[in-house]
Amino acid sequence: MIIGTRDSRLALAQTDLFVKTAAAHVRTEMKIKKIKTAGDTDQISDLKDMGGYGAFVRELDSALMAREIDVSVNSMKDVPVLRDPGIMIGAVLPRAPCEDVILPTKLDKLPFGAVVGSSSVRRSVIINHMRPDIEVRGLRGNIDTRLRKLDSGEYDAIILAKAGLERLNIRREMHTLDMDMFVPAPAQGAIAVACRSSDTETIEVLKKIDDIDTRIETQAERAIMKIMGGICSSPIGINAKREKDELRIRAIFFDGTVLRKCDTVIPADHTVSDLEKIAAELKGVL
Hints:
Helix content is 31%, strand content 25%.
């Protein structure tokens, strides 16, 4: 099995998680192929101008369809909800903590006019809503690069996903942001393993490591975003948490300057209608 991945420390750490998980269930030789994506090579352009976080996936998808790799491993929040029908998510690994964190200072402790680094439209809009005095400045690069920019004084604080820091075993002063406002991006903290829809042999392998709770949660989150017509760079946060037979959905959406929030419980075996109602509430049509 040839595994495609981005050539970054976090991407390789996530790929290593997949390899270790798969090795416990199947006996097949696994080789890693590093692939540079547009999001990796262009560190200047705004992600929304590059088609959102899909900029980190397109080259991997092309390699899959060209049969240069058998599977690709990526942060699930970077995977567009609209994708080539020839590609499917064959497995979702157990989810890491999905919260956002701010380093090194709490948001309410930052001085007036502080500069906060983030390239996330969602995070930027939430910060501007809570602290209009703060300047949110774009922040590109891998986690190590972003931390160096913080240490060099380019920013007073930066916001990152807690999952990435944990997977790289980075221990720094950080503060978890309140999920009632900083609702994570859909599928944040989850790792997606994609394969060709026609590759039945690989699909059977991936079924053995698919985490059902994480799949149910992330499918609901991504389905709501799809219904709303959103992309990965939309100012929207959606988080689902499975609790036995129920699914708690928390969501936040900025329609221009109008903030809409949702906190509701639906059945774990929900219908499309349940998700459509949540999307309608976020759009303000209910």
